[in-house]
Design brief:
438 residues; 6-stranded mixed beta sheet; two-stranded antiparallel sheet; 14 helices; 62% helix; alpha+beta; Heat Shock Protein 90; 10% strand
Length: 438
C-alpha cells in the first residue's frame, strides 16, 4: 500500500528516492510563508476590530485560513481533508455569519490561526533552515569558491580557501542533506497531524453531510405536518360522513317493517359501523388527537390502555416540541406492539421523563427477551426515526434468552418553557388491564 503521510513513508527503504522529502520541505516552506502572512493579516484585523466593529472580522478570519491550510495538507497527507463547516439553512450573509460564529470548527480554526501566526511559522522556518538550508549551503562551497576565486564563506561562520576543503565541505553537505531528510519529514508529519486535528478531524462529517442532515430533518417535519393534515381531513370529512350514513341506516332500519329489506338494512348498518370503527383506528394510528391536544404523557397512557398486554405507566412529562412528541409516541407504540407480538410477556411498564434536555422513554417487559434490531420487528425503522432527531435507541437484554427486555429511547430536545408538567399523565403508576384494543 502506498504511504499516505510522511510518517508512513519514513519506514520505507526507498524513502530518500521518493517524493516525500521534497513534499515535506515544500510543506514547511509554504507554512512559513503562510504563517508570516497570517500574522500580518491578524495584526491588521485585530487593530481594525478593536477600534471599529469588534471581534467578528478577527474571529471569522479563521475559516479563510482553515481552507488554505486544508489545501496545503495535500502536500503531505493524501487523505482528503473535508470542510467541517455546515451549510446554512437559510440564504444570506447574516445566516452564514450566525452559523459560523456558533460553530466549534470556527473557533478551532481561529485558535490554529493564532498558533500559526505566533509559534508554528518560526518553527517551520527554523526546521527548514537546519534540515535543508544548512546542507545546501555546505553543498554550495565549490560553487562559491569558483565564483570568488580565493575563498568561500559558509553560513557566515566557516571559511574554505582550498579545493580539497571545498569538496570535503560539499560531501559533508550531501551526507547531512540525506540524514536530515528523516527528521525534516517527521516534523512535517507532526505539523500536518496537528493541522488536521484542529481543522479537519478524520471522523468529522463532510460539508455536504450537514445539509443532508438538515434536509432529512425538514423532510421529517413535512411528513409529520402531512400526517396531521390527513388526520384532520379524515376526522372532519370521511368520518363525519360515515357517522351520518350510519345514523341514516339506523333510522331507516327502525322505520322498515320486518322482512328481507330490514335484514339488508341491518346488515348495511352493521357494515357501516365496522367501517367507522376501522376508520377511527386508522385515524388514531396516523396521528392521535390526544397527542395533539394534550401531549405525550396522556397519549402514552392511552396507548397503554389499548395494549394487548397489561401496562403500568409512570409518566411525568411537560409539553415538548411536536416532532419529539410524535417520535416518542410512535416509539412507545412500536415497543408495546413488539411486546404483544413477540415477547410473550404477562406485564409491561412504560417510564418517561424529561431531564437535562433529554427525553428518556423506557419500555420494559417480563417476556422471553431476545429483541434484536437486525431481525427487523420494527426496531430498525424506529431507530431511523429517532436518529433524525439526533436521538439514540438502545436495547438492553438483562438476562437473555429469558428476559426481561428493556428498550430505552433517548431524544435530545430543549427544556420546555413551563416549569410545571403540562398535559402529562399522573405521576403515580397506573395499570391498564384491558385485554385488547378498545
Amino acid at each position: 500500500m502506498e504511504p499516505r503521510t510522511p510518517w508512513q513513508a519514513l519506514t520505507r527503504p526507498r524513502f530518500l528516492l521518493g517524493p516525500w522529502p521534497w513534499r515535506a520541505a515544500a510543506y514547511l516552506a509554504t507554512g512559513a510563508l503562510a504563517g508570516a502572512a497570517a500574522g500580518l493579516v491578524l495584526l491588521v484585523l485585530g487593530v481594525f476590530s478593536l477600534f471599529l466593529v469588534g471581534l467578528p472580522p478577527l474571529l471569522l478570519s479563521g475559516p479563510a485560513l482553515g481552507a488554505l491550510e486544508r489545501f496545503r495538507l495535500r502536500l503531505v497527507d493524501r487523505d482528503p481533508a473535508p470542510d467541517p463547516h455546515r451549510v446554512p439553512a437559510a440564504p444570506g450573509l447574516a445566516a452564514w455569519l450566525r452559523l459560523r460564529a456558533g460553530e466549534p470548527a470556527t473557533w478551532r480554526e481561529f485558535a490554529y490561526a493564532l498558533l500559526l501566526a505566533t509559534v508554528l511559522w518560526p518553527l517551520d522556518l527554523l526546521v527548514l533552515a537546519v534540515g535543508a538550508g544548512l546542507p545546501l549551503a555546505l553543498l554550495s562551497a565549490p560553487v562559491q569558491l569558483a565564483a570568488d576565486g580565493h575563498e568561500a564563506k559558509i553560513v557566515k561562520a566557516y571559511l574554505v580557501t582550498t579545493w580539497p576543503g571545498a569538496l570535503a565541505t560539499a560531501l559533508l553537505g550531501a551526507v547531512l542533506l540525506l540524514a536530515l531528510a528523516y527528521p525534516l519529514a517527521a516534523v512535517a508529519g507532526a505539523r500536518a497531524a496537528l493541522a488536521r486535528a484542529l481543522l479537519a478531524p478524520r471522523d468529522a462529517p463532510a460539508a455536504g453531510i450537514g445539509e443532508v442532515i438538515a434536509s432529512r430533518a425538514r423532510l421529517v417535519d413535512a411528513f409529520e405536518a402531512e400526517r396531521r393534515r390527513i388526520e384532520r381531513d379524515l376526522h372532519d370529512g370521511a368520518q363525519q360522513r360515515l357517522v351520518a350514513l350510519t345514523m341514516t341506516l339506523g333510522l331507516a332500519r327502525l322505520d322498515t317493517p320486518p322482512g328481507p329489506l330490514a335484514d339488508q338494512l341491518a346488515k348495511a348498518h352493521a357494515e357501516a359501523g365496522q367501517v367507522l370503527t376501522e376508520l377511527r383506528e386508522l385515524i388514531h394510528g396516523i396521528h392521535p388527537q390526544v397527542l395533539a391536544d394534550y401531549g405525550l404523557g396522556p397519549a402514552l397512557a392511552d396507548a397503554a390502555d389499548r395494549s394487548a398486554v397489561p401496562v403500568e405507566t409512570d409518566v411525568e412529562l411537560p409539553r415538548l416540541p411536536r416532532a419529539v412528541e410524535s417520535a416518542g409516541y410512535f416509539a412507545g407504540c412500536e415497543a408495546l406492539a413488539n411486546v404483544g407480538r413477540h415477547s410473550g410477556a404477562r406485564r409491561a411498564r412504560i417510564t418517561a421523563r424529561h431531564a437535562h434536555g433529554v427525553l428518556r422513554l423506557d419500555v420494559e417487559d417480563d417476556g422471553r427477551g431476545g429483541a434484536d434490531p437486525a431481525r427487523g420487528s420494527g426496531l430498525t425503522g424506529l431507530a431511523d426515526r429517532i436518529a433524525v432527531l439526533d436521538g439514540t435507541l438502545t436495547i438492553t437484554i438483562t438476562s437473555p434468552p429469558g428476559g426481561p427486555t428493556l428498550l430505552r429511547v433517548e431524544i435530545p430536545c430543549p427544556a420546555p418553557q413551563q416549569t410545571a408538567p403540562a398535559g402529562s399523565a399522573s405521576s403515580s403508576p397506573r395499570t391498564a388491564s384491558s385485554s385488547g384494543r378498545g
